[in-house]
Amino acid sequence: MGGMRVNPNLYLETLDSLELTRQAEDTALQEVSTGKKVNTPSDDPAAAAANVGVQYEMAADDQYTQSISSISGALDTADTTLNSVVNLISQGLSYGTEGGNSDLSQSNRDVLAQQIQDVESQIVTLGNTTYQGNYIFAGTATSTQPFVQDLADPTTVTYVGNSETNTAQISSGQSVQTNLPGNQILAGTAPNTNVFNALQQLSQAVQTGGDVTTAMANLQTAYQYVTAQRVFYGNTENQLQSTESFLSSDQVQLSTQQNTLIGIDMSQAVTNLAQAETAREAALTAGGQIGQTSLLDYLPTPSS
Amino acid sequence: MSGLMGSLQIALGALQADQAGLSVTSNNISNINTPGYTRQRADLVENQPLEMGNILYGNGVSLSRIESLRDDVLEQRIANETQQQTQTQSYLAPMQQAEAMFNDASGTGLQSAISAFFNSFTQLSTDPSSTPLRQSALTAAQDLADSFNQSSTSLTTIQDSLDQQVSADVGQINNLSAQIAQLNTEITQVPQGVSGADMLIDQRAYLVQQLSGLIGVQTSNTNTGALNVSTANGIALVAGQQSFDITAQTNPTTGHQDVYGQDEDITSYITGGDLGGTIQARDQGIAGALSQLDTLATAIANQVNTVNQNGLDATGAAGGLFFNTPTPTNAAANMSVSITDPSKIAAAAVPVPPAVFAVGDNTNALALANIQNQTIVDNETPIDYYSDFVSGVGNEVSGASAENSSQTMVLNQLQQQLSSVSGVSLDEEAVNLIQFQRGYEASARVISTVDSLTSTAINLGNSGGS
Q1: Closest-CA distance of chain B to residue A296, Å
Q2: pLDDT tens digits, residue range A77-107?
Q3: Quick check: B129 and A39 CB within 8 A?
């Protein structure tokens, strides 16, 4: 008898190759149907872990984008409000110019002085602007109406907010200041930075025929000061916009990264699937062929 | 003994030998699908020749024995490989269930809950006085606690079913040990040289294979034909005709089943087989994952508590516990939010005098959000710790899976090798069938020829008659 005895039970080997081709086909099918090459952490533990980090950063970027949209509402409102304040002050300045005319009658002076006081009252109202229920010029005392007019003497305005500022995180490495306290903008302590005092002074000078020129110069200074404060809001809004576009390009980059980590090359995956299917069919065909016959089939049946 | 009568005896011996051959062939064919069956062969030998004068006369054939064509070395290798292969198999299955729970790419796992939790503080910082935002932060915290609870509970459920498997395996091992001891008794009772023992040895070898699927064992043959079986660390399961039970006993601390052999806790020494893999998964793989989740949950809860206690809530009162203090064990399973009133989230910092509390202060909300960037757990940030955890679980599975594939391949090859030695081939049996049939027919012809010759011889004397 020549040669080695071969395994008579070919089913064992066939089962193995069927199992292997079935696994290959399963994997290929899963990759095609999910579009991912990492379908469980064990497919590529390092990629799965890196993907956790990428998804985490994507979620953080989503949050920063949302934060930007939340704070820019208040910033926009503040900016628009200050624009109105600046317009009102220049209106006050034109009343003052008119009031500086020495030919005016007392009743004309009274009217102009009242108009200047009205401007002051309107600025108080603007200083008490709220955004979503929060006073935006109250520092961090957002539930407190920051500017209070003395009932007995409406020209006297007191600031009752605080001098605190908040910051917000707008990207993983970037924070911005989100507010200026109202006293800093409208009721500064430096000379001629208190809009209300300047208006009050002008109103009195006009009414009494006092030193309108000095009062006008002071209000002018206050005007420039408020305008300068407004720059903060403009700058912050610009910063928010540029960060927002950074975040959206970062999102794109992260999702590219994610695709590299766990995504598949679809054409490659489809090819793999086709190959796996062919291999499985071949194994099945081979399996179907084996063991159908043995020598017994060729022996004559014993004659009785 | 020569002469015609001698020839008759020789032919009779041949008939018997061929019958034995046919019987062995028939037995082989009928056992073609019997698991563990080793094909047999009728070993025929020439009888001692007769010496008459200077001449040696052949004296026919007889059956020497029926031999089982086994390969002990191969069987031993299969038993060893089976022990390793079933261990990784039994380790792999529960770990695969576990990794499916931390598949963040497919939406399971803790990353989204961790992100949402910290992001809710970032969002709160944009408007710390907002009750809806405070409520969202509370809900995100609740979700985070739920995620930890669920992950931990699911892992514990896997662990509990592994624990039940330990008891089941112990029962099966004892059952097999007892059967092997019983076969040892029967085998040692079969007189030496009688072939009946082969079938018993087949059965015993098959039981040892089954036992190897359950636990790593060492075997040794004794000179009486008995097989001694012990665990890999030397605890006897079968010694001669006696078997020794191992037992599963509840550990009062863990509540899990410990395995005892000969009054000794052998749980951590058990390797190989389903029991080895099951214990490995229960006490290392799953237990390790659970303890990492506990570590992470504890670190997050403690740090959030510390920061919340450093701040002031929406009413200006000092912040309290955010999460209930983590329990020393099962912290992930028991993680729960302490706060029920959203105003209790301490979004504001304690003001430095002369400043006073202001509801719009977001300093502490930012500090709460910033915990995510702090290395609060094993010198890592929470998300880095979690992603290491994911890769750890993934590596366990991919390692065990690769090991298992190669073991399975080796095992299959060994089994094919064994089958090529011991497996029944129908072709071969068909040839044997013809061979013995023809032999029998020829011997029968010899008998009838001798008979005819004998009759001729008998009739020599009465040739004149009739």
Answers
A1: 6
A2: 999 999 999 999 999 999 999 988 888 889 9
A3: no
Q: Where are the beta strands (DSSP E) in chain A?
A: 130-131, 134-135, 147-149, 157-159, 167-171, 174-177
Q: How large is the ipTM?
A: 0.84
pLDDT along chain A (304 residues), means of 10: 69 78 87 87 92 94 94 93 95 91 88 93 94 93 92 84 92 91 88 88 90 91 91 92 94 92 86 88 80 74 62
Cα→Cα distances B114→A51, A56, B148, B298, B375, Å = 14, 8, 10, 14, 15
Q: Computed over its alpha carbons, how large is the radius of gyration of chain A? A: 40
Contacts of B434 in chain A (CB under 8 A): 299
Q: Do residues A260 and A36 touch, judged by C-beta distance below 8 A?
A: no
Size of interface A-B (CB pairs under 8 A): 190
Helix (H, G, I), strand (E, B) or coil at B61: strand
Write the class of the CATH domain A81-231. Answer: mainly alpha
CA separation for the pair B324, B338 (Å, rounded): 5
Q: Where are the domains of chain A?
A: 81-231
Backbone angles phi, psi at B249, to 5 degrees: -125, 140
Stretch 393-432 of chain B: residues touching chain A, C-beta under 8 Å: 393-398, 401, 409, 412, 415-417, 419-421, 423-428, 430-431
Tokens of B380: 């890592």
- Identify the H or E element spanning B64: strand B61-68
d(CA B207, CA B211): 6
CA distances from B298 to A143, B115, B118, B350 (A): 36, 17, 16, 25
Q: Which residue of B has its CA nearest to A261?
A: B105
pTM: 0.85
